[in-house]
Amino acid sequence: MKKDQARVVVTGLGATTPLGGDVASTWSALLAGQSGVRNLTEDWVDSVPVKFAALAAVDPTEVLPRPEARRLDRAEQFALVAAREAWAHAAIEKVDPERLGVVVGSGIGGITTILAAYDTFKEKGWQRLSPYTVPMLMPNGAAGWIGIEIGARAGVHATVSACATGAESIGYGIEMIRSGRADVVVAGGTEAAIHPLNIGSFAAMRAMSLRNDDPRRASRPWDKARDGFVLGEGSGVVVLESEEHALARGATIYAVAAGVGYSADAHHIAQPEPTGAGVMLAMRRALQDSGLTGGDIRHVNAHSTSTPAGDVVETIAIKEVIGDHPLVSGTKSMTGHLLGGAGGIESVFTILALHERTAPGTINIDELDEGVEVDIVRDAPRALPPGQIAAINNSFGFGGHDVAVAFTSV
Amino acid sequence: MALTEQEILAGIGKIINEITGVPASEVSPEKSFVEDLDIDSLSMVEIAVAAQDEFGVEIPDEQLKNLKTVKDVINFIQN
Question: Which pTM does this prediction carry?
Answer without folding.
Answer: 0.95
